[in-house]
Amino acid sequence: MKEINPKNYRELWGPIVHIGPDEELFFGGGGYHRFAIALILNLKLPVMIGCVHKSSIPLLKDLRKIANK
């Protein structure tokens, strides 16, 4: 999505990642195969952020910085 619109930070239909307490990441419902392949090949994988625990909201700003690199 970022390639279509540079201001976009969401990856529609990508794997969903939820952020729990203490900034713990959880995969939500799909994309395990894509994640495994990206991990094996050492590739970046665009994801869509799902639910965020209120204690982890400050992390969002840093995650968006990582996504823009």
- End-to-end Cα distance, whole Å, is 15 Å
Classify the helix fraction into a percent range: 25-40%
Q: What is the CA-based Rg, rounded?
A: 12 Å
* Residue runs with pLDDT of under 50 for 5 or more positions: none
Question: For the report, how would you describe the main beta sheet?
Answer: 3 strands, mixed
Briefly characterize the structure.
The chain is an alpha+beta fold. Helices cover 28% and strands 17% of the residues. The protein has a domain at 16-63.
Walk me through what this model shows.
By secondary structure, this protein is α+β, with helices and mostly antiparallel strands. The chain has a domain at about 15-65. It is built from 2 helices and 3 strands, in the order ββαβα. The protein has a 3-stranded mixed beta sheet, with no helix packed on it. The mean pLDDT is about 75.
List the defining traits of the structure above.
single chain; 69 residues; alpha+beta; three-stranded mixed beta sheet; 3 strands; 17% strand
